[in-house]
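Lecture notes, structural biology module. Today: joint structure prediction for complexes of two components.
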Amino acid sequence: MSGFSRTEENQLLARLVKDGDKLKGLDRRLFLRQAMGALGGVAAGVAAPNVLGNSNLPPNVPSWTKSLGEGVVTHPYGMPSKYESDVVRRTVPWLTADPISSISFSPLHSLKGIITPNGLIFERYHGGVPTINPDEHRLMIHGLVERPLILTMDELRRFPSVSEIKFIECPANGGMEWRGPQMEGLQFTHGMLSCCEWTGVKLSTLLDAVGVKPEGKWVLAEGADGAAMSRSIPMDKALDDTIVVYAQNGEALRPEQGYPIRIINPGWEGNTSIKWVRRLEIGDKPWYQREETSKYTDLMPDGRAREFTWVQECNSVITSPCPENPWKIRGWYEIEGVAWSGKGKIKAVDISLDGGVSWRQAQIKGLVLSKALTRFSVMLKWEGQPLLLQSRAMDETGYVQPTLSQLRAERGDNSIYHKNSIHTWQLKEDGSVFNVQLS
Amino acid sequence: MFSSLNISTMKKCTLAAVIGATLLSTLASASNLDIGRAPTAEEIAGWDIDIRPDGKGLPPGEGSVADGEVIYEDKCAVCHGVFGEGEKRWPKLAGGFDTLTDDRPEKTVGSYWPYASTLWDYIHRTMPFPEPQSLSNNEVYATTAYVLYLNEIVDEDFVLTPDNLVLIAMPNAGNFYRDDRPDVINERCMENCKDPASIEVVQSLRGITPTDHFKEDGNDGVAYQEEIGKTADIPSLFEPAKAGLATYQQVCKACHDSGLAGAPKLGEKTNWKARIATGKETLYSHAINGFQGESGMMPAKGGQTQLTDDMVKQAVDYMVESSQ
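The predicted structure, tokenised, for the full assembly:
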């Protein structure tokens, strides 16, 4: 590169690569080629092949090895690598009237293990995310109790706490597909699902503190958001495993997850886990709020409807391969996925490669916790054959995840919620994956 | 030296154990932790807003169908439709009778909701959408009465009160039953579970899922929104206005797309002309600090106080440029 010093040359090349980073594919190659040409054509000889995508690969020593990186607290709150910018929540714009009352989906295809990172937990709210000053927020517990109580957030933290890993799922997860497959990615077929370690005070502890009167059989939980979201929770659930939560995955709740406090009803439809909770009233009957009559009731073919369908029954899905994670070459792969049940632990997961004709038991990996996501896997040497991939989970009650045909035969097409059927991915000869249903 | 240190440490441990045991014995029940205080009657009354089907919780007051019509047309019809038919994807409130067994059932207040108390409770706690908990109790009675009237459940001269609300029989009451799942029993078959020849593969609909993050020919899923035409000429906007588009879609659109709460609709030039004539700074100020106008109320930052002033200004720029 005549007329440039070695240092200048390196700086220019680095600048070119950096600018080229903003472009993709053919655009990037054209840009670099033209830029190199402008520099005098020398780079086309030795340097060019390296700059065009391989300069950091062996046997070359990568640029990041020959330089220094950023110092501590350059980013006081750390963020993912810029190369992970596609790993985000997404919404389906046409699903709802307005983003203030809508839903976003977790990128299940990019997640590992059983914990959903705090920035990727699916969102569902009906009046937007309130900006609550914790110093001005209170939890009030009243109604059929001996000692009504109002707590500051500091006072709530003085009660003994628990930390529990539990999934949370919207009962409408998969609900767009009762009539047929229509979402082209795992994020949208199953992404109303996340799993966290939740820290807070068991509701039973607080109910002990206020002294529930014998006639107190229900708890109304109510949010402080613009929807004042409210649900009736029966006393046996409240005394069993409901938690008033202030932290998730080790840090304070995120605003969209209920900051400063929310309820978690483990294993139950997400809507009962009231966010931004401000009030718990104890009563002798349910309240029949809008979210337990107009919504979150399951319309059956005879025109009647199930109410208080709280439990999220046993479910599973393969997360790799999936439409977002195709198999690009032949060879060995790990078929992997998640299973979960609102009734307890996952007992077994089976995988079918032929659309449910035959099944083999998958390996369960890592922690197996009650009402938490559980990982399963099977190794497969793929020779390019087409597959109809399915997973079928069984929980510790012996309940086996049903087929969609079985659910439809019982419930018809219009019950919206609680579609936990066996899911099918069609893997084609070229390794691409499609969301399909089998009739 | 080591031994004395150990003894000292042991003493501390023993002491700590004794104190711990004392505390633990009193911790057996949370009822005597004595954390927090009792709320005052006034504090409870201010927050205790829930209403039950038996009328528990209903405050004194009343409202007529006639009064409700005025409120409904002013604050509700823009989303729910003049006849409760529902605009765009906002909920349909009226009609749909005898459709619950149809292929496409219409679940409305009249055709589906089991209790009138739920309607009162919901309007009171969160309606109208951009101004939750802004209606007086009498306005809630009146609006509830009008929605019942739209469903032909009460007559046009009806006046709703706490006493007669609990007597209203909703058409679909009695058609709900408690969860009886598990309703489907699947067997854990391992071999020859079905005839391979019986398998038919139903393909997914194409083009309605946002797929541009993993497909070369993907789309953003927005094409299914009816509003798409309004933002089609983005290239003509100045940079701040383009930046404001995101804020508009997240926050402002709720009212300014539909004209809710008297908001000037995006793109309606006649409605915007006089407003634009007051100058950008005035519009910025009204949007950031809130403003009570003749046709409606602009909440400060649209009620989204976490927005920066610049984000609000950019959204104003976007709306002005799209409406002149």
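Point to remember: The helical segments of chain A are 6-21, 25-38, 47-54, 153-156, 186-190, 203-210, 235-240, 404-411.
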